[in-house]
Amino acid sequence: MFYSMVLELIKTPDEAPGHYDYIVCSNKAIGQEAVAKSLAPVVSESTTIVLIQNGVGNEDPFRAIYPQNTIISCVAWTGAIQNTLGIVHHTKNENLQLGLFTNLNVSTEIENQRLKIFSDLLSTGKTPHEVFSPSRLQTARWEKVIWNCAWNCLTTLTRLHTHEWLNSSPEAMYMTRTLMGEVVAVARKMEVDIKDDLIDRLIERILRMPSIGTSMLTDSLCGRQLELDVILGVPVKRGRELGVDMRVCETVYTLLQGVDLGLRQGGPKST
């Protein structure tokens, strides 16, 4: 069981007493530009921004708004179950992958020092983690989004857990692999090093696990806005720009945009 101590609680950055050395964003990656702008009161040129979020392209709004700051990008693999309000049971699946989103305006020495300090803080807290090179970290981001774009999106559309979805029809596995394959093709067009066996490994991994409901499915069932853009929207946009055939991803993305709009509007209107 994990315990925490709240030293100071503020509702918005405007209420903060000053600037911080590190700002950790572990929120859902929704409205990234607005979130980045909201941090201005607590960011100085020496502030390091840490993004622990799913998706790809997460760093871009922060880099545009804070061109002089170090950004540490992170990929989290965490298993947890919440059956009771306020009580989260963590499973054995825990790992944090982190690396720099390189800033040419900051010296390599300073960026590496800031990364090491944050890694040391994680070690002090006994958080399992790996430090990657900038290019390897972006590969890890795409590997995770290939996982998320399938399971999050397809379970949300069908309201089925992972194994239920895969067993729902003879075509379910084929569609899942096709969706993943389209995102793999986009990543490779962007010169991201995706291994040939990645899809097989991700399928094997989900089959070894108990059937799970994803975080996007949970958000949908709870009436919350979906973390859709960084998980599927960015891959679709990049695919269009690069001429990749994205017909399955585009179909799923179009349908989920409708689901998301309905959630933001409070559900279907009565007839």
UniProtKB/TrEMBL annotation:
> Where in this chain does the entry annotate a coiled-coil region?
none
Q: Which reaction does it catalyse?
A: (R)-pantoate + NADP(+) = 2-dehydropantoate + NADPH + H(+)
Q: Name one GO biological process term.
A: pantothenate biosynthetic process
Keywords per UniProt: NADP, Oxidoreductase
Chain ranges of the Ketopantoate reductase C-terminal domain? 137-258
Entry's Gene Ontology cellular component terms: cytoplasm
Alphabetical list of Gene3D superfamilies matching this protein: N-(1-d-carboxylethyl)-l-norvaline Dehydrogenase, domain 2, NAD(P)-binding Rossmann-like Domain
Which family does the similarity line name? Belongs to the ketopantoate reductase family.
Q: Which organism is it from?
A: Botrytis elliptica
User: InterPro entries per the record?
Assistant: 6-PGluconate_DH-like_C_sf, 6PGD_dom2, ApbA, KPA_reductase, KPR-Related, KPR_N, NAD(P)-bd_dom_sf
Q: What is this protein called?
A: 2-dehydropantoate 2-reductase
Q: What is its EC number?
A: 1.1.1.169
Transmembrane ranges, per UniProt, are none
Pfam families reported in the protein's UniProt record: ApbA, ApbA_C
Q: Name one GO molecular function term.
A: 2-dehydropantoate 2-reductase activity
Q: What does this protein do?
A: Catalyzes the NADPH-dependent reduction of ketopantoate into pantoic acid.
Which parts of the sequence belong to the Ketopantoate reductase N-terminal domain? 15-101
